[in-house]
Structure to design on (627 residues):
C-alpha cells in the first residue's frame, strides 16, 4: 500500500459521531462497486463531509504566497550574484508560480529570470520572458534594462534589425529612468558600441540541432501488441501471472518496445516540465496557468491548447483536488484521466463503456485486449482494464478511495461540470476504479527520471506518475534485463535490453528496487506492501547478496566453462583497467565493448559476479545520459 496523506481523515469524522463500525458494515454489504459509491456518497452527504459550494481560489492572493514569492525571488537574486544561474532560475520560476500575474512581483521575477537565461545563453527564452514582463506591470522607469538585454539577446542570435530596434527603445526609456546622469552616459556609450556591432552583423539562419537517429523495435512490431517486438510473446504462469518472454535471443542494446504513456503527471515541485499531455517537454522558462497557477507550461501555445482540450474542466478545482487526502499526484491524475475521457466520449458513451467493461468476461492472459484480440496502449479500455488486485485491497482502503471519489465528483459538479443523478453511480465507481489502477501502477516506473541537462544533479529527481499499459505487461525483477529510457522529450518511452535475454527467458523491468542495493527481506517486504505480490525473481529465490558482498574473483565455484577460464580472466583484467582509466561521461563511446563484455560473462560466469553487476550499471549510466 502506498503511503496516503491523512488516511484517517474521513474515518475520524465518523468515529467522532460513533458511526464508523456501522458504516463499514453497510459499506461491505453493498453488492457492487456502484452501490458502494452511492452508499459512501449518502453517508458523506448526511454528515456534511464535503463542501456545498466552491469558494474562489484565494490561495493565489494569500499573504503567505506573496511572502514565499518574494522570498524565492530574493534567494534567486543571491544565487544570481554568486553566478549560480541554473539554481537561481529555479527560484525565479517558483516566484512566478506563486505570484499573481498582474503584480510587480510577477513581472520582476520574469525580468530576473530573463537575466539568468541570458547568462545561460538561452537567448530566445530570455526574450520570451522580457516580452512577458513588459506586458505584466513591469515599472516603466526600468524598461531600459529589459530593452538593453533584449537588444543583446537579439544581437547574439544574429538578428541585427531587431537588436537595433531594442537598443533604440532602450535609449528612449533611458531618459525616463531614475538613475544618475553618469550611469546614463555609461549605458548610452555601451548601447552605441553595440549598435556599431550590429552594423557588421550578418543575418543568418540558426542551425537546428541534428535529430537523434530514429530508434526502431528489433525484429519489427508484434502482430497483436503493436508497441512490442515480434520477438516477444505473452504467456501466463502460476509464479508470475501474465508475462513477456523472448521467442529468440535478444542482445544488450536491442529495443524491445516503444510506447507513449497513456497519462502522465509530475509532482507540484516540478518547475521544468510542461504539463500539457501532448507536450511534456523539458522547459527552462515555464509559465503557470493564469487562473490556477498549478499547471505549468513551456509557452503560451501549450497553455492555450491544454485549456481548450481539458484543463478548462480541472482548472477551477485543481487547488482543492491537490488538498484532498490520499496521494495528491494520484488524485490529480484521476481528474486528468476522467476529464480526458469525458471530453472524448461524452458522459453517456463514457458510462456505457464503463458498464460494458464491468460485465466483460476476463481472460487472465489477455485482460487488457479488446474484443478483436488487439492490445492498444492508447485505448481507454486497455488502460481501464489494467490490474488493480481488487481482492487484496483492504476494506478501509476501499472506503477511503470511495470518499476521495465522492469529493472529486462533488468538486467537478461545483466547478461547473454537470453530472446527472442517473450517471453518478457509474461515474463515481469509475473514479474509484481509476484511483485503484493509478495507485497500483503509476509509480512502478518512478525510477524513470527526466534529465533536464548535464547539470540536472542540481535539482531533486522529479516524482512522476505514469500510466503506461505496455509497462504493465512486464513483470518486476530485482535484477531487471530491460531499461526504460529516452525521457519524455517526444513522449516516447523506449524499452531497451541491458542484459542478454536468451530464447525462452522472461523480460523484466524494475519497480525501483534492486538486489545490489537492498537486502532480500527488505525488497520482498516493500514489493508485497506496495504492489501486493511475493517476488520470485532469481535474486530473491537464490538470496543473492548485495553489491558489497558479491563475489569478485573467477574461481571454480562460479566459472561455467573451465576451458575458458584463462581467456575470461584476461578479459576481466582488461575491464578493471578500463574502469580505472575511462571516465563515466565517456562510457557512451565504449558501449559496444561493455555490451560484448557483459555477454561474455553471461555465457561463462555464474552470477552474481561483481564485474558483471558493475558492467550492467555502466550500461545503465550510458542510457540514462543519452535519454
Amino acid at each position: 500500500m502506498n503511503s496516503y496523506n491523512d488516511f484517517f481523515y474521513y474515518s475520524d469524522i465518523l468515529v467522532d459521531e460513533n458511526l464508523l463500525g456501522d458504516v463499514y458494515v453497510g459499506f461491505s454489504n453493498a453488492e457492487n462497486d456502484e452501490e458502494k459509491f452511492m452508499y459512501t456518497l449518502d453517508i458523506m452527504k448526511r454528515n456534511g463531509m464535503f463542501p456545498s459550494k466552491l469558494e474562489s481560489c484565494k490561495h493565489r492572493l494569500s499573504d503567505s504566497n506573496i511572502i514565499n514569492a518574494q522570498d524565492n525571488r530574493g534567494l534567486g537574486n543571491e544565487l544570481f550574484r554568486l553566478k549560480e544561474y541554473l539554481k537561481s532560475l529555479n527560484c525565479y520560476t517558483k516566484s512566478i508560480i506563486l505570484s499573481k500575474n498582474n503584480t510587480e512581483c510577477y513581472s520582476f521575477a520574469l525580468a530576473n529570470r530573463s537575466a539568468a537565461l541570458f547568462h545561460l545563453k538561452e537567448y530566445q527564452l530570455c526574450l520570451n520572458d522580457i516580452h512577458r514582463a513588459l506586458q505584466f506591470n513591469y515599472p516603466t522607469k526600468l524598461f531600459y534594462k529589459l530593452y538593453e538585454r533584449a537588444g543583446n539577446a537579439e544581437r547574439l542570435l544574429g538578428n541585427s534589425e531587431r537588436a537595433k530596434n531594442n537598443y533604440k527603445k532602450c535609449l528612449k526609456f533611458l531618459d525616463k529612468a531614475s538613475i544618475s546622469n553618469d550611469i546614463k552616459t555609461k549605458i548610452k556609450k555601451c548601447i552605441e558600441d553595440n549598435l556599431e556591432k550590429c552594423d557588421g552583423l550578418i543575418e543568418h539562419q540558426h542551425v537546428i540541432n541534428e535529430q537523434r537517429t530514429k530508434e526502431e523495435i528489433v525484429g519489427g512490431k508484434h502482430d497483436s501488441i503493436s508497441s512490442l517486438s515480434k520477438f516477444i510473446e505473452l504467456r501466463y504462469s502460476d509464479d508470475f501471472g501474465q508475462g513477456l518472454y523472448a521467442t529468440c535471443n535478444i542482445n544488450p542494446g536491442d529495443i524491445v518496445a516503444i510506447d507513449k504513456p497513456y497519462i502522465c503527471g509530475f509532482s507540484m515541485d516540478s518547475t521544468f516540465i510542461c504539463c500539457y499531455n501532448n507536450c511534456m517537454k523539458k522547459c527552462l522558462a515555464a509559465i503557470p496557468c493564469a487562473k490556477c497557477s498549478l499547471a505549468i507550461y513551456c509557452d503560451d501555445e501549450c497553455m492555450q491548447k491544454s485549456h481548450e482540450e481539458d484543463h478548462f474542466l480541472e482548472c477551477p478545482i485543481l487547488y482543492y483536488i491537490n488538498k484532498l487526502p490520499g496521494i495528491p499526484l494520484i488524485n490529480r491524475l484521476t481528474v486528468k484521466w476522467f476529464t480526458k475521457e469525458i471530453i472524448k466520449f461524452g458522459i453517456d458513451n463514457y458510462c456505457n463503456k464503463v458498464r460494458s467493461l464491468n460485465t466483460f468476461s476476463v481472460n487472465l492472459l489477455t485482460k487488457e485486449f479488446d474484443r478483436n484480440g488487439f492490445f492498444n496502449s492508447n485505448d481507454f479500455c486497455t488502460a481501464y482494464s489494467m490490474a488493480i488486485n481488487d481482492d487484496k485491497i483492504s476494506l478501509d482502503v476501499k472506503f477511503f478511495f470511495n470518499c476521495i471519489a465522492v469529493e472529486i465528483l462533488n468538486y467537478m459538479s461545483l466547478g461547473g461540470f454537470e453530472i446527472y443523478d442517473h450517471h453518478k453511480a457509474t461515474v463515481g465507481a469509475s473514479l474509484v476504479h481509476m484511483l485503484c489502477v493509478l495507485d497500483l501502477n503509476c509509480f512502478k516506473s518512478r525510477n524513470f527520471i527526466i534529465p533536464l541537462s548535464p547539470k540536472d544533479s542540481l535539482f531533486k529527481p522529479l516524482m512522476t506518475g505514469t500510466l503506461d499499459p505496455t509497462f504493465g505487461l512486464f513483470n518486476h525483477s530485482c535484477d531487471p534485463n530491460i531499461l526504460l529510457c529516452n525521457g519524455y522529450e517526444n513522449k516516447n518511452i523506449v524499452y531497451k535490453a541491458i542484459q542478454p535475454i536468451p530464447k525462452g527467458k522472461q523480460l523484466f523491468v524494475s519497480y525501483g528496487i534492486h538486489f545490489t542495493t537492498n537486502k532480500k527481506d527488505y525488497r520482498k517486504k516493500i514489493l508485497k506492501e506496495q504492489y501486493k505480490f511475493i517476488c520470485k525473481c532469481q535474486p530473491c529465490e537464490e538470496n543473492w547478496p548485495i553489491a558489497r558482498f558479491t563475489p569478485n574473483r573467477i574461481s571454480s565455484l562460479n566459472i561455467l566453462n573451465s576451458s575458458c577460464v584463462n581467456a575470461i580472466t584476461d578479459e576481466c583484467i582488461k575491464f578493471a583497467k578500463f574502469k580505472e582509466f575511462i571516465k563515466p561521461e565517456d562510457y557512451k563511446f565504449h558501449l559496444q565493448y561493455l555490451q560484448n563484455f557483459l555477454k561474455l560473462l553471461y555465457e561463462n560466469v555464474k552470477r552474481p559476479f561483481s564485474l558483471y553487476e558493475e558492467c550492467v550499471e555502466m550500461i545503465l549510466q550510458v542510457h540514462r545520459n543519452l535519454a
About this structure: The domain at 62-199 is CATH 1.25.40.10 (Serine Threonine Protein Phosphatase 5, Tetratricopeptide repeat). The chain is about 50% helix and 5% strand.
